[in-house]
């Protein structure tokens, strides 16, 4: 939450240089408070697991948040019951007239497919377009990040030599960005993907900046300089056992997966993995909610249409 101080206090200038949010008493007196409206487009197969992971992170804030879930009507879910979708999820046609403070677009285990070959690609493009006028800030995760970069900036993914899976050390490159407020210089984060984005393509795009990178895993977090879109290539929302479950799933499928790097103690798949990334996950999502969304979104969400003209 912001620090509220007298308007003329000299310390304000110092604090603002350090990217500490300060609200003067005049602004505080005229500030209206309402719940944040957050939409989650859940593209993961086991939707209930992803629901828990994301809601856990979104709850790490004193703000009241109203959460709605969205699924793709052009895709038949095989791992989530139709009853669950009918009860708890919307289709795009049902919410496209609504406005949201924030949108989270999850990953999906389809990154080896060309975007145009994904059965719901046309519907997803419609959602991407809609989000630019009906959502204040969008947080894209893994394949959702790659798809967003492709749609919004024509940056394509590339196939890796082998699946990138494990826990990797990441360097914070842009500590003055509010979404990275409170982060140490380095932190751990999980990755699980077959494709990646080239750093040179981000650097060549004026609107974008690389915020976090790993020497081993490559790009992790990219931000749009208008603070209204973020692209995370890894999975900070993952639970302790998620990579373990993916490893066993791929073993059963006969894919001969490699052991996730830096994950199992002593590389022993029978030992319980250490949880090294949830502190960073909580901080990243709470920063996104607080600084990218709450502090900047219009009180009347329909004003988004004016902002995008």
TrEMBL record:
What's a Gene Ontology MF term here? homoserine O-succinyltransferase activity
Where do the catalytic residues lie?
142, 235, 237
Pathway(s) where this gene product acts: Amino-acid biosynthesis; L-methionine biosynthesis via de novo pathway; O-acetyl-L-homoserine from L-homoserine: step 1/1
Question: Main site of residence?
Answer: cytoplasm
Give binding positions for substrate: 163, 192, 249
Keyword list, A-Z: Acyltransferase, Amino-acid biosynthesis, Cytoplasm, Methionine biosynthesis, Transferase
Is DNA damage one of the keywords? no
Residues annotated as site: Important for substrate specificity: 192
Note the InterPro entries from the entry. Class_I_gatase-like, HST_MetA, MetA_family
The record's catalysed reaction(s) read: L-homoserine + acetyl-CoA = O-acetyl-L-homoserine + CoA
The UniProt family comment states: Belongs to the MetA family.
Q: What does this protein do?
A: Transfers an acetyl group from acetyl-CoA to L-homoserine, forming acetyl-L-homoserine.
Q: Which PANTHER family match?
A: HOMOSERINE O-SUCCINYLTRANSFERASE
Q: Kindly provide the name given to this protein in its UniProt entry.
A: Homoserine O-acetyltransferase
Query: Coding gene?
Result: metAA
